[in-house]
Amino acid sequence: MAAMEELEVHSKSYFVRWVPVKSDHTISWSIQPHKKSLNFGIFKHPGQSGVLSTPNLSSDTPSNDSSENLANGSSRNASSSLIEKLTAMGLKQIRWVGKCEADKIVQGTYDVPANEGGNYALVFDNTFSKQISKTVTLVLLTYPTALPPQSVPTPHASNQSTPGETSEIGKASVSRRRGNSLLVRMPPQIQVQEESDSATTIHTGLLLKRRRKRHQGWARRFFSLDFTSSTLSYFHDPNSATLRGSIPLNLAAVACNEKSREISIDSGTEVWHLRARNDAEFVAWKRVLEKASSSKNAAEDDHGHSPKHLHPHTALRLPAQRFLTNAAEEREWTQVASLVSRVSESRDAVRRLAKDTDPKYISPNPPPSRGRSGRSPSPHPAETNGDEKRSFWKRKTSNPASKLSAPSDTSVERKPGGFSNTEQASDVHDGLMALLHNLDQVVSEFSLLITESQQRRHPPEPTAASRLSVESDRSEEFFDAVDGDSPLLTIKSDSDDEEDTIADGSADVTADDALSDSDEDISEPGASTGAAHDQYSRLFPARPKSLTPLPLDTVSRRNNIPAPTVMPPSLIGFLRKNVGKDLSQISMPVSSNEPLSLLQRAAEIMEYSSILDKAAQLPDPNDRLLHITAFALSSLSSNRVRERAIRKPFNPMLGETFELVREDMGFRFIAEKVSHRPVQLAYQADSKDWSLTQSPRPSQKFWGKSAEIVTEGKLRITLHPTGEHFSWVPATSFLRNIIAGEKYVEPVGEMTVLNETSGARTVSTFKAGGMFSGRSEEVTTKLIDPSGRESALGLAGTWTGTLQSTRNGSASATLWTAGPLVHNAPKHYGLTTFAASLNEITPIEKEKLPATDSRLRPDQRALEDGDVDRAEEVKVQLEEAQRARRRDMEASGESWEPRWFSKVDEAPEGEPVWRLKPGKEGYWEERVKGSWGSVLPVFQT
Question: Could you give one GO CC term from the UniProt record (predicted)?
Fold first, then answer.
């Protein structure tokens, strides 16, 4: 066995790399931590002679050491604690290497004694680090002790340093080495490709994995199941090559809960709680796990001990005769496997040589003096033994079977004439590719033969009829009898609380889960799966019981407002007048505002709600996602008139609200300002087929000539007919030319819309404008399916005009067109007709509004009517009254409590989320009563 892997070990945690090894075999390792050090040790699984308990797996190690002098002591204390923990689980300590310095290689070997074959754990310890995750490159080899491969750097075969000795190495050589050999663990994107070529050897896909921290929900991760080794591994995403964890199924108890679509895998040292996103994926993963578990083959010692992990409550007796194998036959198959390994090395050498002779990479006139590697093209005695003197990381394969094709540049350049002629290089390259194809077939057929032989000589173990959960002491779950011959365990629940927790398989997965790097996943004891799902599903709006006050008769609305009577002040002039003053205590003049509040500005997102109506009725999930994306982009069009950029909306009073009931569009909307410092709003809109909510926190950063406008807080949508959840963070925009020149707003960067249910997403990219080209309005969208592959579908157009769906770059149907503007929009604040109607009191709102509604704000109304002086006076009075209320509350030790929204305590860290209160305390229920008795009159002066 040979592997080269990039491992990630998270803070306050440890990584276990299981290695099945037979008796009289050697484990050889080379370790290089990157940037930061970590600890390393080797343990052995007890096999059938012992079982692993599952104690508290939280690796947190409290420490008060803050100085650098105490770092080593803290590391030793944490390592000692980890050793005790692993020993308490039942693992046998073999060797504790200790600290491995950053960017240095630590090499070593361990010879497995007779009768001690089994599963060995390579433990990478980072429990002493409170915040920093570590990455480490591991080169791992196992081979018969009496027959070490010549390419393996052992003290008997080379001049390498003794085990445990360290040496410096450049990272570039590691990168060159990685991926050259098929014995090296392939990155996930290659594995995805292999899935279609050889579906019987590997299965890949996305699953939800419970996060490490309590109450942090689930994270979407990429999993790979290798049938040849029956090992389940996972990575951050399909494009990541860094291994985050792996569990051999022959050591694990696997349990499935069909009701919740959850899969629990307990290796004894860690527990993975996984969840499929839908029933089809659950069935597929259950089937392949059954297949892998049925064909799993543990490394067995001479006494026939199976390292199969057994639960303490399981009384499972395995017949001894199934472990009796013919020793001579085992030796023969070991030799076959060794020969296949040598053929693989030869094949890999040919592969590298084929790449070196590829005409695409060969210059027709190479320099005559030196080759690409800087060595002389003529033979030199110093180069003959170069492989023995170079570091193991840089050494090429020196096996006799592949020595003729050692992949050095000089092997190509030493021949008379070299490969200076491109046609000769092309002929050689074609021959090498044909040879490589034959070698690939030989290795594939041999590997299949070895796998079938192993399965025939080691039939599947009988499964337990019943067993208890490894977490039975802290949950009501139990393992029921196994159905049929399935090696997996079925979980049933005695509690009815789970009834409503799995309405959607990924309801509690946040939008940044596909990208976040901060969440490693060690099972948190005591964390309730049902509770975790429930708390995160609360972030998404549920279908309301009714849409009161809808339905209503149609009313007519205005399509324009009076033109402003004064121009907004110059920012330079305003700053000049206030030189030396604290600008945070100075309010901008009312003439710098438009006659709309920030709450009403937020409601402008509803202008194109008809897109959501259509999306909810579409049968194809990709079409639904593209329509949701078009809706997300459509909200940017409110800034398409440049005059809109020279004024800002009114900052609402704390507790100010705004309702919008559109009987013609079939939705209702309510917003409230829930926080003043920082400014945060909360709103929810409901329709027959969808609901959306957001708790936006707008902020600005000034960068000299421009201002960056950032809106924190995900917008979340539920499509009721399908139950799908979608989320995205609004695009970042820039206000250009704030000091001088024509002001305008343009979105920048990318915006990702995520289908929380399926894992598919769209990435919309805003074309960057040139230095002198003015505003850029083009936007393109690509759709990425749940497996991470880019689809042929997408969007193209402008965020100011139209968006069309595309297939392979060719435009087809129009999904969105910008709505009408008011007449002579540049002279009327640059508003759309939709925005112009927001401050109007129609028969729907007349005598129905609470005293906090933005339509009733006197300074805003005065500005709309053209009475700027009155607006300025009232604005100052309202702001002073608000300060007085805040001082009174601070004096009495009270804090502001929003009337219509409540804070979600279980929201993701760093994202305050507010949920509309339901029931009798709800806004729409109070509107029916019409009393508004508990509402604070925030406009009273």
Answer: perinuclear endoplasmic reticulum
d(CA 313, CA 717): 46
The residues, ordered by sequence, that sit 6+ positions from 912 with a Cβ below 8 Å of its Cβ are: 675, 680, 695, 697, 713, 903
The two three-digit tokens of residue 329, written as one number: 């036959």
Give, in words, the CATH class of 189-325+459-537.
mainly beta
Site of tokens 């705004």: 658
Instruction: Give mean pLDDT in consecutive 10-residue pieces for the chain, a chain of 941 residues.
Output: 81 87 90 89 74 45 38 61 82 90 89 89 88 86 82 40 40 35 37 40 86 73 85 85 83 84 83 88 88 59 40 35 49 66 68 63 46 40 39 39 39 42 64 71 65 56 37 34 52 41 39 38 35 57 94 96 90 68 69 96 98 96 97 96 92 97 98 94 98 94 83 95 95 87 90 94 88 80 93 96 94 95 95 97 96 97 96 95 93 92 84 91 93 90 81
| CB-based contact 263:289 (threshold 8 Å) | yes
Strand partners of residue 805: 795
Tokens of 109: 């070997």
Q: Compute the distance between CA of residue 669 and CA of residue 307 in angstroms, rounded to an integer.
A: 60
Choices 3.20.20.60, 3.40.50.2300, 2.40.160.120, 2.40.30.10: CATH for 571-929: 2.40.160.120
Query: Residue 331's pLDDT is what?
Result: 61
Q: Which two tokens stand for residue 90?
A: 């039942």
Residue 266: predicted pLDDT? 82
Between CA 746 and CA 708 the distance in angstroms is 10
Q: Which of 757, 756, 544, 840 is nearest to 666 (CA)?
A: 544
Preceding peptide of 678 cis, ω within 30°: yes
Q: Contact 888/809 with Cβ under 8 angstroms?
A: no
pLDDT at 359 (0 to 100): 59
Residue in this structure with the two tokens 């000769």, named with its chain if needed: 424
Strands 13-21 and 118-126: antiparallel
Query: What are the beta bridge partners of residue 692?
Result: 685, 717
The pLDDT score that the predictor gives to residue 680 is 96
CATH of region 1-185: 2.60.120.680
CA 651 from centre of chain:
35
Give the pLDDT confidence score for residue 796 in this predicted structure: 97
CA distance linking residue 276 with residue 504, whole number of Å:
10
Residues 6 or more apart whose CB falls under 8 angstroms from that of 483 comprise 490
Residues in the chain: 941
d(CA 879, CA 886): 11
Numbered ranges of CATH 2.30.29.30 in the chain: 189-325+459-537
Please report which helix (H) or strand (E) contains residue 791, including its range.
Answer: strand 790-798
pTM metric for this prediction: 0.50
Q: What is the dihedral of CA 460, 464, 465, 466, to 10 degrees?
A: -150
* DSSP-derived secondary structure letter, 474: S
Tokens at residue 852, please?
Answer: 């906090």
In the block, residue with structure tokens 């609004």? 730
Closest CA to 619 of 504, 762, 755, 722: 722
